[in-house]
Amino acid sequence: MTTQVLIAGFGGQGVLFAGKCLAYEGLYENKQVSWLPSYGPEMRGGTANCSVILSDEPVGSPIVNNPDVLIVMNLPSLDKYENATVKGGKIFVDSTLIARKVERADVDAFYIPATKIAQELGIPTLANMVIVGKMIKETGIVTFENACEAMKKVVSARHQDLLDANIKALNAGYNYAE
Amino acid sequence: MSEKVLMKGNEAIAEAAIKAGCRFYFGYPITPQTEIAAYMAKRMPKIGGTFLQAESEVSAINMVYGVAGAGYRVMTSSSSPGVSLKQEGISYIAGADLPALIINVQRGGPGLGGIQPSQSDYFQAVKGGGHGDYHLIVYAPASVQEMADYTIKAFDVADKYRMPVMLLADGTMGQMMEPVELPEVSANEIEKPWAVRGTNCARPHNIINSLYLKPEQLEKTNFDRFEKYKEIEKNECLYEEYMTEDADIVLVAFGIAARISKNAVVEARKQGLKVGLIRPITLWPFPSEVLNKTADRVKGFISVELSMGQMIEDVKLATECKKPVRLCNRTGGMIVSPEEVVESVKKLLSEVE
How far is A108 from chain B (nearest CA, A)? Predict the structure, then answer.
């Protein structure tokens, strides 16, 4: 079993960090994982994305061209990657920031106002983890418990105070009902 | 062995170098390898090592030359345009028979090119790069684990043969994160009686030099050095074979292109096509022998490269053109897809069947 995930949005939304968390969660479950960021002049405001692969087999190419799971946090990313998603794939849309719906009928679309939820929780920078929480729930790619355990490794020692906030965001997304 | 951690390829190189006993790093920032310098800047002062950001790549490589002459493990890293600047120094280090590690995390070229991944410095790495008759041993890792493992091996091999070694990666390998286990190595540094570290007036002084004004002397030095290269070709060649036993078509690819090619092999086999992969791990010495033998039983080869086709020349030489050799490539920072590779397999099969 191999799951190819593409997470895309604006630089500054924590798209790369969300991918890193997912990769660590896979590692925590003894899966083979890879994480590949877009890199370049793409700091805050530009587009950013990362490819994450979780697999029971050694990972071949780390580049995700056709995701099984697509997370989009801005409209340009949905426009760009909707058609690249595999048939039967899952698309997760931050509906606070993206007004339109997924047009394809052969994929499962999930809408979650991740940015709004994060703002209401007082952790406006953690919309990324809200949407990852929702994705974990709908895909079962890793368990929620393991995701929380893995977070301890990802959040650096310097920022342990942010661990609770990250888990709160994950939890809010995981338990969100459309 | 320690616990598996997620690391970027660039960071894995840096940490592996430290584990291998490298205590001197000289470099200059350039995308996509800057994490190596950043990691060294953070770590070296804490372990009594030296990190120095030079004013240019030219001075960085000459600092490497100096420390190598003193017999200490030393490295520099850069990306394509920066590695071009280092070529003069690399030639001097080769000419003075000194061990050192040079990392090239390639990006698109020529000129300043772009910052996205590329493999178009193959010629530069394996055919010389700088002036004069010399070779570098060139490792082409294809995973973050290999970035670490071959960094450690590179230091050992450089010391063993007293020559500069290059690790040829690319932007993808440098930027991607994978689980990596960093081995606890005891830096098995060998005695270096040739090093310039002071004589204590107890012996004649050593000389580090690449200037030979008498042609007879220079010729002999070059002949001797090429005898050493013959040994290396015999002992140090590394490659991986993947599903080649019954293959009709064999892909030849290194680094990230090999990772993509593995996916292509799996996909092609699903479609009933017998495809395999030979992945050179050392680009010099090149795995010519296995390619030549394979040529006797397959229908053709495809060189999969992120360049306009450079390694393909070595594949043709190695196989003596016994079978057709085709190119499947993207360049300039674009990445070849497994589907493109499978298409090229089908095209070649339709020509040879």
Answer: 25
